[in-house]
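Case study.
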Amino acid sequence: MAAGLTRAGRYSAWALARHAFTGSAWPRAWRSPEPKAAYDVVIIGGGGHGLATAYYLAARHGISRVAVLERSYIGSGNVGRNTTLVRSNYLIDGNTQFFEHSLKLWEGLSHELNFNVMLSQRGQVVLGHSPVQMDVLARKGNIMRLNGIDAEMLDRGAVKRLLPYLDYSERARFPIYGGLLQARAGTVRHDAVAWGYARAASALGVDIIENCEVTGFQRDGERITGVHTSRGAIAAGRTAISVAGHSSHLARMAGLRLPVESHILQAFVTEPIKPFVDHVISFGAELFYISQSDKGGLVFGAHIDGFNTYTQRGQFAQVQTAAECAVALIPAMSRLRLLRHWGGIQDMTPDGSPFICRTPLPNLYFNGGWCYQGFKATPAAGWCFAHTIANDEEHPLVRHLGLDRFERGNGHDEYGLGLWTFRQ
Amino acid sequence: MLIPCPHCGERDYREFRYAGDASKARPPLGSTDIAAWHDYVFLFDNPKGGHREYWQHVLGCRRWLVLERDTATNVVGRSWWPSEGSPG
Amino acid sequence: MSRARRLGQGGYVDRSRPIRFTLDGRSYAGFAGDTLASALLACGVRIIGRSFKYHRPRGFLCAGAEEPNGLFTLGSGARTTPNTPGTMTELTEGLIAACQNGWPSVRFDLMSVLSLAAPIIGAGFYYKTFMGPRRRSWMFYEPFIRRAAGLGRAVHQRDPDRYETRHHHADVLVIGAGPAGISAARAAARTGARVLLCEQDFLVGGSLLGEGAGALEALRTEELAGLATLEVMTRTTAAGLYDSNTVVLVERRDHARPDPARGDAREILKIVQARAIVFATGAIERPLVFAGNDLPGVMLAGAVRCYLHRYAVLLGERIVVATTDDAAWQAATELAAAGAHVTLLDERAEVGGELLRRAAASAATVVLGAQVRAARGRRGVRGVRFVSPQYPSGHELPCDLLCMSGGWSPVLHLTSHTGIKPAYRADLDAFVPGGYAAGHFGAGALTGAASAAAALETGSAAGLRAAQHAGYGREASVPAAAPGVAVAPAAPARPRDAHWGKAFVDFQNDVTTRDVATAYTEGYESVEHLKRYTTLGMGTEQGKTSNVNALRQMAQLRGIDVPAAGTTTFRPPYTPVSIGALAGRNLGQHFRPVRRSPLHDWHLANGATMIEAGPWLRAWYYAWAGADAETAYVEEMRLVRSGVGLSDVSSLGKIDVQGPDAGEFLNRLYVNEFARLPVGKARYGVMLNDDATVLDDGTTARFGETRYFMTTTTAQAAEVMSRLEFLLQTAWTDLRVQVASVTDQWAGMAIAGPRARAALALALPGIDVSDAALPFMGCQEVDFAGVPLRILRLSFSGELAFELYVPSDCGTALWQHLLASAQGLGIRPYGLEALASLRIEKGHVAGLELDHRNTLDDLGLGKMARTSKPFVGRELRGRPELQAPERWSLVGLECQEPAARLRGGAILFAPADPIQGHGRGYITSVTWSTQLNRFIALGLYQGGLAHAGEEVLCAYPLRGELVRAKIVSPVFIDPAGERLRA
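After joint prediction, the assembly is written out as follows.
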């Protein structure tokens, strides 16, 4: 349970009713303090990961002299731009455990933060469209079971019973052979994650400082001792970068070059309609995933646009690709209307896996390179990054996610796609 | 986005395939400098601003070209053949 | 029912063409030229929906695309289309419409009890509750929330309609055919520039359609048809602006009752590439914010005018017009002229004398300094309460229609799609585009032009400048941009703090002033937080009527200026676009291109079952061998192992490599040696990625001193081709080599089995296919019946085998000839499943073994590498973890349990291991071995063949299976290679 919240600030049905009848105002969800001169830990980036890291530093490691510096408003980056999926159906050693830890944290998060993040464990079905693809799904499902994670193989008939509105006709270009179901996978209300962590961290004494852009690092030789910001210099015992999408930009200020390129991933939402799709569905023929938000919009996403950019707006060709996938998967979607599409800038890495680690510079820590999977990783990334910062040593769940792994030949390629730059 | 192919003229980007930073120097053939290969293959400047990058006109003349583009705005500049080294 | 009535004359409706339609099963009639909204209003229908959250009765607020309330579900059956604004629905005969969000009906809605819970269910309430009592409690509450949310109901049937995609090129694209747009298009087209003028409405004229008689006629739109280079597209919305002047338009054709059987499109997506763009998108009127401002009968003043003039519908008898600016005075005088009893309430204490003179000439009563406090009524407005100097404690006027005007918001969505931030103009109390990219020009109300005259002037200037930018009309003198016509400054329409009742900011999402205040108090004060916390502007109209009002209230609460409070980012599309229109014709079998072998038709005619292999369709198995893949492939394997079979391998990538340095080039690509490959020989090669994972394998034959014929796997053909070109054009530009993809030029077939040579000899008389003439890995180019034929003696199956390549158009002839000639030997075709299974017995890697995670050494091919020469991937191959002895590498597996089977995707464990975690490896490919009479497999195992002879457990917990297998060499048959050398 989130410590530090005053009785007046605690959320509950009872408190809602009390506020409604007394007309009293709720307190601010998180404080808006002026930056102090020094902190034990300064976290650059007020996204989901940065805020989660701050929360776990305060809640689990007793470090509350922490500041989260956000260039804009908190949650302005990818935590508020993704397609809200959470799941732990991961194949390779390290990923499976990390994402399952994350899902377990998701399962307790609303209670932990006293903020309803609306974890909806509606189940995800990943479809297979060939016998070989079914073998690949089987391998993943077997690994999940062997790691204590729920997984169920569905044949074509079972998929049809569960998702009768998919295209099972002769017209389907890529027939459905079956699918892999993870019942515990689902969706989370994405903005609530940033707000919930911010509120809980703030209650524990973490300073969340919005509209504060980091412009450089203070250093003592190799050691990083703080940051320069648009709101003045701030000294820091330890400094952590958590700015997915702009990792290279911050790293360059510290003189580091990263195995990261910034790419845009678009997301799409239809007009709100009554319940239409009750699960998370992933197409197997191309990268495409869809679910319906509680508000009624069908939220979907596809591949990155395919070249590096910081523009946060996508190319139209990718809109068409996503729409084509939507209709290929669910022919009735043709009649629905696209309400809005937007883009997020994400770090892409050579092996598709992220980094949570120390850096070559003492007292500087790095979390980034999340590719497609930053949102679902949020709690575990915060958890492990906080541990890494607090102990100056990588958390066991992320030991394989160091910056030096390519030098050692220890790439961590979940999908076996190889160097992604050549695979677009 | 339109990309000027030196051979075919301005074409929609979907006719092309992207292959990353063209300012990175591939280590010379036979180089045994593993660190140089590591940097070439795995590290990126990833600038927000001017970027020189490789594209191949796969659905056109199939030639590889170097394009100048601003990654902050997607405003496209000049393009030239890799063998020309620079736009001159 | 309201007192609205259709006037006997005027408007752009055709009274000689009545049109019948139904709403919720009840019949109504309107006229040609009506929208669903105007027809319903003319019929006196006032309540047309219930609000999203509180289920309050709602009527139309607007007359255009910004309508937040009047959404309908149109059509029936598979054509059911929810959430369609009635204001944009052209009335067509037999139209079926249904109201949304009311139960049992919108006129009597039981869910309206939710209004009572309003104090509890304000902004963000769901973040504060529904958490208990248990951890998964949200799963209990969520279905109720989901059912309550959402607007219309969609159907799950396949959309029967057809959509198209077209590409257009224009010198000048003009968006919006109001006075500014028409004037711009006319000016640009007169220079000879090719001009496209698009208009979302079914009539051109824009705001002039809602002016009095003669306004539109003055524009002389009939002249547009005479301009040869101008194309006008009505019913066509500019949905989005993308990089490099790409504009996406969507044309709706529902009015024409498109028949998909005749190839008619319901909607047409038009992707326009324009040299210059004129934005003449107009402006949208803002509501005033006061308690009860959502009651049916409270409408925007401009909309009421539009219904009056365009549709000839007078919407009330006792009308109050409440305004903060000049524009609504026109509405008041015109409504009075049409016979209504009109009172005008202006918040400003002083206004221009001309306004007063004109009002005095009409029958309208004017009250200055009057602020509306509340609209009264339950199912429709019945009165309005206001304060004024004369009535400081308030006064109430009865009315049946309340028109409001809180200023105008320019439609700047498109320019902001490409990242241009809106800029606030205090004189307009509105945001305008913060700038224009090169080649972009604004005109009309978008730029703050307040009158039709100013719109015309800014329009023609923008049109000319746009034409000039596109290279036309240089000689014409361009008038300077018209100065904004002076208008009396509008009084900022400050939201009133409503102490009773609800004052709505966002009508569609039921966001009230109280919700904005809640967001502020709780710290959600950034405009994006406000939006996301309260859901403001997240509905189908994306904040078109609500954004500025909410911003202004937040700025007021924070004690800062409106511009300092920021604006939200507008995202495409401008109005919602059918997914079908975006997908176009790329659906069903046309979702992605299908690649077919030259032998495709033969396969279909001869009992093949086809299967997708990436983009290819390949013959999976043949009916002669069995009724399903499981039985057929085994029969086909037996045929190849004991007799002779023929298989289609046309999908393999084929690359022609030529030039004096071709050998050197291949040497650099492949890990093994190719430069010294003799002419007339072929060799198996592996190429790596720069990071030393395996990219591809295949056989390359040398047909001449400078001529090689490379084959690649089906999956990697395009990738390899591109890589070859990349290296030649960027890195090794000194090499004199040309490469060309010839995949589609050659049909390929493999003839395999102990009788393959005999079969070939029968089929190719006169060609020496003896072991001496064509030894293992030998190749020949011959002429057969006037056709070039390439014969490569190589084997994927492990049997004596040949691959034959002929020009694609001769493929079927050769295939049939081979089958006919060798009929006596029992030759039959075999499919992909058998092909992929035979190679497992022989230990050839393919498919899942080549997945970009594996290195040469992982696949047991490390000895192939000639490290004395440079090749792609050589250096990074030496990285320590890639050389670790405990890496997972290729092994063969033999099933040890006669009653059990091996399965792809099973996880491997040593017998003493606990069966958990990630194991020591996994199975990639499985087949029944006709040679060993058991299931065999290939897989990757920790330490690889160092464990040969050991037993492992193959875990498949998805089926609860645990099967014993033995690690063996991946070459299950003929390890010495005697068969393929026979």
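Observations recorded in class. The longest strand of chain C covers residues 163-175. The CA atoms of residues 132 and 138 of chain C lie 8 Å apart. We will return to this complex in the next lecture.
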